[in-house]
Design a protein that fits this description.
conserved putative lor/sdh protein from methanococcus maripaludis s2 fold, Elongation Factor Tu (Ef-tu), domain 3, 26% strand, four-stranded antiparallel sheet, alpha+beta, 486 residues, 3 helices
């Protein structure tokens, strides 16, 4: 009984629970994929404008720097106008200690006088050298003429005379021997008589024999001399005369070569001396100009700023370095004279807009310090040499202004707007839709990258010149996420 009651109670509880749950619920459906956000390509009007921050720069400022042409030495400040001072045209802005340069001027004057003296000596040496060369050549020509005459005289006259002399000497020796032989013979005949004493006979005969013996010996010598004269002396004399004439000709030719070189050297020395005079003259003139430039006068009425404005910031304006007694470096801009109100604005033009900013395009300039003031100006053509900053190339453009508020100074900033005209009926897409020259076109639920050719942009929309058609849908934020990849 008890078991039956328990079973009945369980069945009642199960039935009640089943009644509370109701019929079985169907499984939930999966949500459909959400369609990505798109932008429909449409035509419109584009008004591109360059909006940037520029810097006020002097429109006609004068940079003051020392650039000596010849002076080499310290540039010590003797006097300098205060930073921010107002200067009148012609007023002294800067004066450099002149003593070291004055000493160099004095030394240069001495060098110039020495160079002039050396030049005078070189010219005189050249004149005297030319005279000496002329005399030496005349002497050489005379020597050649003498040698030639001696050779011709030898051939025509003296050679025969030499032969004749040799023959005559030989003949004389032969005649002497013959004569003495005859005399001896006669003496011997004569002394056969009894009229002369024996002693006298011996003396005379003996003397005649000695004389004859000497003459015979002289005759032998004369024969040898005669043979040597004909075989050697006379031919060799002719050769010597010929060699002397040839040597005289060679000496004259060598003299011509030597004198030609000497003339060139003298002329070169004169030219070097003259060039040194010109060099010393120029150096002295440069030093005197450098000396005069040690006093720098203000080129115009204006305000003096130390340093120079470079890429929107003042540089080199150290007040401690620009005071009396300090040394400055040649070629460095020490100060800038600026006339208040004469300003321009320098602004960087992005590379994509370079050829849209032509000369005389108008722009609007709003000083940051005077936000309620709007200045109109004309653009100059941008510089064709760009500068890179943050991996982007830009080109400086100057906007010329009319008279500006005198409170504005170089280095102050300004907001710049340069309208670049109007482009009508252009295909437009958001700039964020473009990535590396591509946009992602959505078709049949799939995003596909497509190359496009871009035009101008106003920062809000960008012109597409080719690659898209009107009505196509593109992803407005660039490449799709992983779920939208093609």
């Amino acid at each position: 009984m008890r078991t039956a009651l328990l079973l009945a109670s369980w069945l009642v509880l199960v039935g009640a629970a089943a009644a509370q749950e109701g019929p079985p619920k169907p499984e939930p459906k999966k949500p459909e994929p959400k369609k990505p956000e798109t932008h429909k390509v449409a035509r419109g009007t584009l008004k591109p404008t360059i909006e940037s921050v520029g810097t006020f720069v002097p429109a006609g400022g004068h940079e003051i720097k020392l650039k000596p042409e010849a002076y080499q030495g310290d540039l010590k400040i003797a006097e300098i106008v205060a930073h921010g001072a107002t200067a009148k045209k012609g007023e002294t802005l800067l004066r450099i200690d002149a003593k070291p340069l004055e000493r160099q001027v004095e030394a240069a004057e001495v060098d110039l006088r020495a160079a002039e003296a050396a030049s005078t000596k070189a010219r005189e040496d050249a004149r005297l050298g030319a005279m000496a060369d002329a005399l030496a050549r005349k002497q050489s020509e005379l020597a050649l003429a003498k040698a030639g005459h001696a050779l011709e005289w030898w051939k025509s006259v003296e050679r025969q005379h030499a032969k004749t002399r040799a023959d005559l000497v030989l003949q004389a020796s032969q005649d002497s021997v013959d004569d003495q032989q005859d005399e001896l013979t006669e003496l011997e005949k004569m002394y056969k008589s009894e009229e002369l004493t024996d002693m006298t006979k011996d003396i005379v005969i003996k003397r005649a024999k000695r004389s004859l013996d000497r003459s015979r010996r002289f005759l032998a010598i004369a024969k040898d001399t005669h043979k040597n004269a004909h075989d050697h002396d006379i031919p060799n004399t002719e050769l010597d005369r010929g060699y002397a004439a040839e040597k005289a000709r060679l000496d004259l030719a060598q003299l011509d070569v030597t004198q030609a070189l000497a003339k060139v050297n003298r002329e070169a020395e004169v030219a070097r001396a003259r060039a040194n005079v010109e060099k010393q003259t120029d150096k002295l003139a440069d030093l005197r100009r450098d000396l005069a430039a040690l006093r720098v006068a203000s080129p115009a009425d204006g305000t003096v700023f130390y340093g120079s404005l470079h890429e929107g910031a003042w540089q080199g304006g150290d007040l401690k370095a620009l005071r009396a007694g300090e040394k400055v470096q040649a070629g460095t801009v020490l100060m800038t004279v600026f006339t208040p109100g004469e300003l321009a604005v320098a602004v960087d033009v992005p590379e994509r807009d370079l050829f849209s900013v032509e000369a005389d395009r108008r722009g609007t300039v709003t000083p940051v310090s005077l936000p309620d003031v709007a200045l109109e100006g004309r653009c100059r053509a941008p510089a064709r040499v760009g500068r890179s900053k943050d991996a982007k190339l830009s080109f400086e453009c100057r906007i010329e202004l009319g008279p500006a508020d005198a409170r504005l100074s170089p280095g102050m900033k300004a907001k710049v707007k340069i309208p670049l005209g109007e482009i009508r009926d252009a295909l437009l897409v958001p700039p964020a839709a473009i990535h590396d020259g591509q946009v992602w076109v959505l078709r049949d639920g799939q995003a596909t990258a497509r190359e496009v050719t871009l035009g101008r942009s106003d920062g809000k929309m960008t012109e597409v010149k080719s690659g898209l058609a009107e009505g196509e849908e593109v992803l407005p934020h660039g490449p799709p996420g992983p779920e939208g990849k093609k």
